[in-house]
Amino acid sequence: MHLYDVLDLEPIASSRLAREGASKGRTISPFQYNAFAGDRAVTYLQGLKAGDQPGTFLLVGANDSPGPKPLGLSYLGPLDRSTNSAANNSNGSGDWYEIAVPGSYGAAGTSVYGPDNLGGGLVNYVGAYTRNLGRKTPTPDNPSIVGFAYTGALDGSTKRGFRKVQGKVVDQDGDKVGGTYTFVHSVDGGLAVGNTDLADVDGRTGYFSLKSTAFLVSLATGKQKRIAFPSDDQDDRDLITHTAYGIWYNGNGSYTIAGGAGKVLQSGDGVQAGAGYLIDYDSVTGTFSNYTQFTYNNRKRTDLVTHFEGIYRDGRGRYWMPATSVSLNDDDDLSQASVVMVKRRRSGGFRDEARWQTLDVREDGTKTESVLTTGNSLYGNTVVGFANYPKSNGGVRQAGYVFKGDWLDPGLGL
User: Fold this and answer.
1) What is the rounded average pLDDT of the residues 283-293?
2) Looking at the domain that runs over 3-404, which CATH code has it been given?
3) Non-local CB neighbours of 27 within 8 Å, separated by 6+ positions
């Protein structure tokens, strides 16, 4: 799940604001997996790490990810414009693999959100699988979407390597119960982050509550830990919601987590304002620190939702996040993917001012500019995400994209 899925937004036009500070680069779009000849399913590119060889990547995602029966995917190889005739002319000169949780899970479909390359053909994957409930209402004992974690061969064949992850939520009675929707988004250094919530807590959206619980989970033990934010409380009276979409292992037990924060409206659907954030986690002491929020282009706006959807740390200790920003008013159309760089202070915390570069994502062949773009994952100078290209009849063509930029200094990343 990504920001536009939660908000259920229709594609909107790009604005002048979205083009300020645009980053030049090369776009490959669509970057697509075809399960069969003539396959028209949309490929959602959702997670990215380095491959074993220079110039190669480990990429994960799903075909028709927001649908009820997503087809989980992974890819290993160069992110190039080649097509593979042996794989129904799928994009890329590397190898695609279909990933599915074990049949005993009773899953309708699988979506892979985050990878971690362990080397030698071994990986960690995290994601979620859908369950077919028919017309039944999701409950803690009968959830609609359940997270998973996986350790094993990169083609997903190590069936004993899968583990179910159902997040824990504090309900209206103050009891801790299983979430009806759980998504595990990112994994690094043996820890993963995700979100869970109860669909029946409120009716603000038709999909799930905007009051979401962000958590950490250990791939080795399955033990979960709620991420403690300064503005959060256990009974949710403040209506502040947080998501956790990216995690990076800094070494020596230190992790940095990225995601989004927003305030749920008191009346009506949606959120009042939203910002991306970073927070540190010390796995030795079990404590969180240095929580810092960031708004689009460092503007102090109350009608924007900005969300960090991943995280990468370069050789100078700078953090780079793919971000998606959306305007919530009709006067200033804004829906844009960006690359955001944040530095640390000498004291160890994060600097308040970030450097923002918007992505100019265009369709191959037509060079049509995307009107609703998400930046889903970043590694080095490469971002993957999802684009909507306008058609003359008022509709859109949807496609995954690969964007290759030049924001990193030479020698600090791929």
Assistant:
1) 97
2) 2.120.10.10
3) 360, 361, 362, 363, 364, 401, 402, 403, 404
Q: Yes or no: say if 34 and 297 are a contact pair by the CB < 8 Å rule.
A: no
Residue pair 261/277 in contact by the 8 Å Cβ criterion: yes
The Cβ-side half-sphere exposure at 337, using a 13 Å CA radius, reads 32
Sort 304 into a burial class: Cβ within 10 Å, 0-12 / 13-18 / 19+.
buried
Domain ranges within the chain, ordered by starting residue:
3-404
Q: Could you tell me which of 327, 322, 318, 330 has the C-alpha nearest to residue 382?
A: 322
Kindly tell me the sign of the dihedral angle through the C-alpha atoms of 112, 115, 121, 122: negative
| Digit-coded pLDDT (tens) for 363-407 | 999 999 998 899 999 999 999 999 999 999 989 999 999 999 999
Under 8 Å between Cβ of 374 and 16: no
Cα–Cα distances in Å, from 24 out to 19, 20, 200, 309, 405?
11, 12, 44, 21, 6
Contact of 232 with 242, CB cutoff 8 Å? yes
